[in-house]
Amino acid sequence: MLLNPLLLVLGIIIGCHCQEQTPLQKVVESGSKFNGNLHKELANTQNGNFVYSGLSANLVLSLLTSGAKGDTKNELVSGLNLVQDDKERTNGYKQLTSSLNVNSEDLKVLSANKIYPAKGFPVEESFKNTAVNDYQSEVENIDYQNKEHAAGTINEWVGQKTNNKIQNLINPDKLNPETKLVLANTLYFSGKWVRPFDFSWKGSFHSTETQSKEIKFLQGTFQAKYRPCRRHQAKFLELDFQGGNISMTFVLPNDRNGLKKLEDTFEGVSELSPMYTGNVQISIPKFKEETTIDLVPVFKKMGIQKVFTSGADLSGISSKQNLQVDAIPQKTFIEVTETGVEAAAATGVQAVPTSLIRPDFTFTADYPFLYYIKENNSGAILFAGRYVS
Questions:
Q1: Is the same domain home to 149 and 21?
Q2: Left, alpha or beta for 226 (phi > 0: left; psi -120 to 50: alpha)?
Q3: Which keywords does this Swiss-Prot/TrEMBL entry list (predicted)?
Q4: Digit-coded pLDDT (tens) for 231-251
């Protein structure tokens, strides 16, 4: 019996906790739990800095789950902390993706889905309708006999949807004539700070107690949201973006060796509220990061096994073909500059005098910290990561 691998592809950023139980709030709450588990696994397997998007993973894997059955589906729902009811889950993600798509000069949040069936591959109409109507997915048949052309077609679409910040997501060597379906999701974000930083300067970043390196820091003293937290033994700094209700939060442990403790409880860390508002003296690294992650071994540790084997039941996608998931790559890009966070070229440095405002709070991130970008209306986390060196 021929087993046709299914290649699952991710583009890039989510999660949050809400009290009410509408479909939107349910998927955001479940996404928060998934994001916490995902961050913990990545922290144990990834060396150095990393950035990822739990939202991007959740979106495309939720679509996959709608085509799974039996134990395969049960493992996906349990391992990903998905909302169990298909209708509630798809309605929730439909509302979430609709609310996230913003495309203005100051703020861009663009999510896109696409399925690439092989030419002649019999995709179930019910699955195709779910993809198009509930996940706003495009559909394009592709010839996997020519793996170079197929990979190029998918990578070109990913590049277009991410302002060319994500390149070569699909390795043509991962495709073969037996590949029957690719599911792709991208999430692109670009935002300008409500209050740009005053200037940048060079200082020492302490990766460990004994290791440090000279890097560029962004410096400013201005109105921002902050909170010292005894529960997590950390300082929180929240910076808003123009043009929408989106912010970036930096979480700095009080102890220079306290990062692991924060990462082990990431879900609780990302739900902190409320914040204080005041004049904050801020010093954070200016950085650019791109991370490529193979999520298959990560998900296996989270209890998802069957979908990667010949015993996978994805008959909701095709009742005439035996499918299994072959790979789940995710590539994510982030750049933090004086003017904002964007997937774009670096901004020139302009030095201005330091502020004479007396700060209410000081936030100096010169040792390892966490960060996440959140849509505050829903509480969905778009991107998250850590900076350690």
A1: yes
A2: beta
A3: Protease inhibitor, Serine protease inhibitor, Signal
A4: 889 999 999 999 878 899 999
